[in-house]
Amino acid sequence: MPRAVRRSSSPPRASRAASSRGASRRTRPRRAAPSPRSRPRAPRDPLSSRRSELFAMRPSHRSAFFACAVTTLGLASSLLWLGGVLPWWAGLFGLLCDAADGEIARRSGGVTTFGALYDWSADLVLCALGWAHLGGTFSPASLVLLAFLVPVQVALHLKQVHFSGRTGVFVAGILLEVFGP
């Protein structure tokens, strides 16, 4: 006699004895689809990521370019003052540009790593040239002073104490012009 086939929409169940022994049907937990953040990414070239960080062209690239242009204008006018081509007001203009460029970049959202390094290195160069100008030449005393001042400015920059190297040079230059020999 053929066996009767039971037609049902539900799957067959294990007997009680089988379920107590752990033979019941076990299902694997479902895994969620991987999120876009958890997908493996291709390794990046460390130089290209550093380059993109330094020269990032954000939507505020005009303000970052303008801030660097103000730094360049201040650098040029200060160099012309130190060279004796322009009078003292060019040094004052360079000092004002140095104070304004960072403020322009911060307020307009154009702060870049390149702009910060450019402004800092312009300050270091002008500090060195200013001390050489005040000493007349690179005498041993000015070299010792310069060897002391540049590391101090680097340390203050790393500690995020912001001051301009041009400030000290400008003030010392004006004092020498007013009270000098």
Describe the 3D structure.
With 181 residues, the protein is mainly alpha-helical. It is built from seven helices and no strands. It is elongated and about 120 Å long. The model has no long low-confidence stretch (mean pLDDT 68). Belongs to the CDP-alcohol phosphatidyltransferase class-I family.
List the keywords:
7 helices
Summary, kept brief:
With 181 residues, the chain is an all-alpha fold.
Q: What layout of secondary structure does this protein have?
A:
Elements: H1 16-20, H2 46-54, H3 61-82, H4 88-108, H5 113-135, H6 140-158, H7 165-179
Helix pairs in contact: 3-4, 3-5, 4-7, 5-6, 5-7
| Oligomeric state of shown chains | single chain
**Any idea what the radius of gyration is?**
35 Å
- Output the helix-strand order: HHHHHHH
Discrete helix count: 7
- Taken as a percent bin, the fraction of beta residues is under 5%
Unreliable residue runs: none
Mean pLDDT across every amino acid position: 68
Output the structural class: mainly alpha
- Largest β sheet strand count, sense and barrel closure: none
How many beta strands in the DSSP annotation? 0
Fraction of residues in H or I helices: 55-70%
Apparent shape: elongated
Distance between the termini: 130 Å
